[in-house]
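Fig. S4 source data, part A: sequence.
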Amino acid sequence: MKRMYFVCRNIDRVEHLSEQLYKRIVSGWDFQVLSKDEAGLQKHQIHSANIFERYDLVHSAERGSIIGGFIGLIAILSFARLNLGHLELGIFQYIVVMVAPVLFCTWLGGLIGLHHENYKISRFHDLLEHDAYLVMIDVSLHNEAHVRKIMTEQYADFQPAGISSSITNPFASADRHQFKEKPAH
């Protein structure tokens, strides 16, 4: 699946697009709109982005679990190598020593992620602060051309803002280049 991004400044046009896509192509979870105007999105019955789309919860939790895995592995190897006090550790104790840091670091990563904007949308921060609507459409490979055609033919006022994978990559970092809106003609 790919995620297509479009920017628009007119909520009525976003509502019209939402209705058309629901009729033709996408389901509720494949179409989200991100905006500071939450009340406007609710009033127009437009599917707003959820917590996972807004904040870096999943991305940071994944990073935390990887770090926790390394910490657990180092702890297991240390216990096995040092054989502290000639302890007889069973498999259960080694599993606990491995899983505890993974769970803790995943939890901590998620908490940290709740305080940061999603790394995939951080480049749209300035636009969102100035009353733009970021439309995110998840499309399968066989629907991508159809969505592009609809957008170029019927929604030319929506500015294409990029394409990314709909899958979170724990090794990716935020795009530091802010998206610049093209001036209206």
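Fig. S4 source data, part B ends here. Residues 120 and 169 are 10 Å apart (CA to CA).
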